[in-house]
Amino acid sequence: MTRKVAVIGMGHVGATVAHYLVACGFTDDLALYDTNEAKVRADALDLRDAMANLPYHTNLTVNDDSQLADCDVVISTLGKSKLVDTPDHDRFAEFKFTRTQVPLVAKKLVDNGFHGKLVDVTNPCDVITSMYQKLTGLPKEHVLGTGTLLDSARMRACVGEALNVDSRSVVGFNLGEHGNSQFTAWSTVRVLGKQVVDLAKERHVDLADVEERSRQGGYMVYKGKKYTNYGVATAAVRLTNALLSDARTEMPVSNYREEYGTYLSYPAVVGRDGVVEQLQLDLTATEQKKLATSAKYIKDRVKAEEQRAAQAGN
């Protein structure tokens, strides 16, 4: 079966996603889109040249809307990261740009008959994922955001460093918004066969410090180079591969949770049909409260945007 993916937005993240897909042979056909025609054509040419030294071939197209009709996965990576250069590094700062562009992309998807799975990386991730679902009319389980898949990876890296083990040996989740209200659900984190809260006591590890370092990870990357790309691009490709291969992988991605009435990050099993199963974690009372607070924050921002859009339409 031929695998076909589209990347919309060829900035730092989109270009990294495209390169990862091509270099690892994860897709047979790759459609690239960007409003900057010169940039996206240059990226396509660069990727074409790279293929001569790769063991895989990928068919590339540029800004051809007709290609969207039979894409298995569309990845939205459009954005304007420089807007996040604020004192609190709030990803909602990008909303002033992305809320105007996402409806245009959604219309393009609808007009060209796209009926595959949509992976959103565009910030603010949970709100934009919700917008894409409503604007495209795609089933909720077919529209997902990378959400805290990246935040959880940062947490696992920091826990691994604190305990001197590979981050892949750490299991657990950050939940809620991909933003300032997300948190580490320590009750879900296990490493070396133990609950991390117990192991931390044994080894005198301050989990509050670990959580703060993982929270600051993205800001430290941004501070150094004024954008982030490798971590989030890898999260996007991992999610895309789970969809393409029907992997049925458990991962903390932004998916619609009926009990909260919004998209937010919570572990789900992802396969070819999108979210094929939702987990129900046994969280502590404190974690449940934090998750509810994060959900309310997301819903309030979605509601505010819907009201703004309605007023603009009058």
UniProtKB/TrEMBL annotation:
Every Lactate/malate dehydrogenase N-terminal domain range: 4-145
Record SUPFAM superfamilies: LDH C-terminal domain-like (SSF56327), NAD(P)-binding Rossmann-fold domains (SSF51735)
InterPro entries: L-lactate/malate_DH, L-lactate_DH_AS, Lactate/malate_DH_C, Lactate/malate_DH_N, Lactate_DH/Glyco_Ohase_4_C, NAD(P)-bd_dom_sf
Alphabetic keyword roster: Oxidoreductase
Pfam families xrefs: Ldh_1_C, Ldh_1_N
Cited PROSITE patterns: L_LDH
Residue ranges occupied by any Lactate/malate dehydrogenase C-terminal domain in the UniProt entry: 148-305
Keyword Oxidoreductase: yes
Coiled-coil zones: none
Family: Belongs to the LDH/MDH superfamily. LDH family.
PANTHER family: L-2-HYDROXYCARBOXYLATE DEHYDROGENASE (NAD(P)(+)) (PTHR43128), L-LACTATE DEHYDROGENASE (PTHR43128:SF31)
The name this protein goes by in its record: L-lactate dehydrogenase
Source organism of the structure: Limosilactobacillus panis
